[in-house]
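Branched-chain-amino-acid aminotransferase structure dump, as promised
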Amino acid sequence: MAPIAIQSASEYPSTDLKTRFTKSIPSATSTGLTNAGIKHTNDPEPQLSKLDASKLVFERNTSPKALPEPNSPEVWAQNVCTDHMITCSWTSSTGWSTPNLKPYGPLSLMPTASVLHYATECFEGLKLYRGYDGKLRLFRPDRNCQRMLTSATRVALPAFDPKELQKLIEVLVATDGEKWLPKSRPGSFLYLRPTMIANDDHLGVRKPDEALLYVIACLFPSFDTGRGTAALDANPALREKERPGLKLLASKEDTVRAWPGGFGFAKVGANYGPSLMAQGEARAMGFDQVLWLLGKDCDVTEAGASNFFVVWRTREGRLQLVTAPLGDKIILDGVTRKSVLELARERLGGEVEVVERKYTMCELEAAVQEGRLLEAFAAGTAFFIASVSKIHFRGEDLEIPTGKGDSGNYAAVIKTWLHDIMYGQEQHEWGVIVEERQLNA
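C-alpha cells r here:
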C-alpha cells in the first residue's frame, strides 16, 4: 500500500544530526593526502535521513484482538496493547529509515544489544482520551515529544524532529482509536508509550550506532482513586477503614532517586529501575509510594514517579501552591506539572501565590504541626491528580488534610479543569483533536 501523505514539518532548529551524530571527514591537509590520494577536501559529508512521518508505510493487522471490558483484570494487568504499533530504525551512517505502522508484536534483539547492558533507553507517557463529545484527543503531545528529544540526547540516542514524532503518534491513535476507545465509552483513555532503545549488537561502552524508535498504545486503569494504589493489595477491605488519599513513605538519607548533575530530569529507564526496591518496601508497609527526599536538609522532590505539590499558608498568612523547581535538573519536567502551574497562575492568581522553590521536609512538618498545611497532591500522567492524606517521616505519621470527600479543595478544582480539557468539556488549545481513520486491507 502506498504511504499516506502527511505534510512535512519544518526542520527542528535546535537539533543538528549531522554535527552531533556523524564523524567529520578529515581534510587532505590533516591526513597528508593530495589530489592523488583517496580523500579530497571537497568531498561531501554524508547526508543523514531525518525522521519523516510522511514516508510512513502501513501494514494491517489481520488477526486483531478482542476489546476487554472496562476495569477488567486484563486492563489492570497493563499488558494488553492495541492492534498496531509504530516502528522506525536509525543508524549512525544512514540516519532514520522509513517508519512503519505494523501489527503489534515482539521486538528482535541480540543478547549484546546496548540497551540491555548500558540502559541506553528513554520513553514517554501520555494518554489518548475519548471525549464526552465523541472526539479523540491528545493532551499537549508536543510537550511529550519535546521532552523525549531531551531524554534521548541525554543518553546518547539520536535526535529527531519532535513534530514528526507527534505525527507518528497521531497516525497510530487515529488508526486504533475507534476500536479501542469506542464512542460508547466516553470518559475512557489509552496509555501511549513512545520508546527509543539502542539495539546495536556489540558490547562496548560507547555511543550507540543503531537505535529503534517505537510507539505502542496500552489499556490502563485509572489510578487517581480516593483509596490510593495500595487499596489494590491482598487485603483491600482493611483499607476501607482508612482515610482516602495516597499514603507516602519519606525516603531515608541513604536512598537517593536523583542528584544534581545527574539525569533525574530525563525520562530514562535508569531513573526507574533503581527506585523499584524502595517502592516495593513502601508497598509492603502499606504505603502507596515513596516521597523522595534529597540531602541532609531533606529537600522534597517527587512522589514516586509523579511531581509533588503542597498548598499551605506561610507564617505571614500568604496562601501558596508550592512545588520543587527544575533548576537543578533533579525532577522531571512533568507535562501535568507544567499544566497545573500554568492553570493555577492563570485562574488562581488573585487567590493563591504559585511558587517553584526548594523546600524541606522539616518545613512541611512544621506546616502540619502549626495547622498551616491545607493539602498535598501528586501530579502525573499515570496518577493524574491524586491527593495525599499521610506522609510517614522519621517514625512519625503526618496527617494531611483532604477537605471534603477524598480530595483537597484546590486539587479537586485543578483536576476538574484538566479533566474538562482532556475530555472536551472545555475547548482548549491543549486538547489536540485526532481525526479517526480506517486502515484498509
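The CA atoms of residues 69 and 136 lie 19 Å apart.
lmk if u need the other ones
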